[in-house]
User: Fold this.
Amino acid sequence: MRGFVYEALPMRVRFAPGAIADIPVEMDHLGLSRVLVLATPEQRELAEHVAAGLGARAAGVFAEARMHVPFEVAQRAGYEAGRLGADGCVAIGGGSTIGLGKAIALRLGLPIIAVPTTYAGSEMTPIWGLTEDGEKRTGRDPRVLPASVVYDPALTTTLPPGLSMTSAVNAMAHAVEALYAPDSSPIISLMAEEGVRALAGAIPLVLADGLANEARSAALYGAWLCGACLGATTMSLHHKICHGLGGTLDLPHAATHTVMLPHVLAYNQEFAPGARSALCRALDAAGDPALQLWDMLQDWGAPTSLRELGMRREYISRIVSLTLANPYANPRLVTAETLTGLLTRAWAGDRPDAD
Ligand code: NAD
Assistant:
């Protein structure tokens, strides 16, 4: 076994169907008296329902969260938190809403109670992002790590089938890259393998019946583990490419991860034998987890090409340049030629290939 460093992140997790009713208990635990409830416009009703349940302990509702956390939205949310005298935030939603909570925490230091309703995993990480003048900046800061995470699988029953499957693959991507991360560790590998197994088993059941409580619980459990992998390790080629595709071309976050993951895994797996074995076990694959993943996504009816997500072919070279611009760890050397081949296959929706 090679040496490793493992640092546990200080956070508390509450997991149960109906756990949303326990937000006041989490507030007590953190010593919070008035929270600003955050959501997207689409989830305003849920946020208002939660705020009504909190009564005077809700400072207000700010339901303007948007993808990639625009700087001006974060500014306004921070101003509202100050004006309303909030001493914490409850962020109910996916990565966009939790990202807004993080932007407020970064500026004002207010603790976050995160209530995730997708499988994106932001609630488990100290990673923040802010977009200004079309450019997304990201960073790590312990202040933005949610102090408490309330996982309520019942809240994910409204997640449509398309987002359920793509968000699940977004989560799996964290685990896949954690398995070959330079700062991985045996504990992270356990969480990664179990997270992928839980999601791969749960999503077909979720697609068959989106209201199935056991399947929704298993999927959220898997997302939790995969999110913890993202929070603990450094991501590689896959996340680098998706960051470029999302940030520069504005492609949908979870769907972009879904298209790219089998291609990046096919490219890397020969050079990461430990990750390959773990993924064979998790996905019940004979020897090629990338192809197993690809076949699984076909069965689910997931998007399989960047073209269908709206990307024009001529942007491939731009993404190649962006991806190669800054060095980062990856099990296999990446060149302009190999990356162009990989992105061209992903753009066209071809079967993944290791070349
Ligand atoms: P999202 O938060 O943008 O949500 C997508 C849409 O789905 C929104 O309209 C939202 O209101 C809706 N939605 C969410 N949950 C729902 C539910 N249960 N039922 C019905 N509708 C629901 O999507 P996402 O994929 O969760 O997050 C993507 C964003 O998160 C990206 O900006 C990404 O960069 C960021 N992210 C950050 C981290 C991190 O560690 N900082 C990790 C993962 C993702």
Q: What stands out?
A: Strands lie at 12-15, 35-38, 58-62, 88-93, 112-116, 127-132, 135-140, 148-151. The first helix runs from residue 23 to 30. The mean pLDDT is 96.
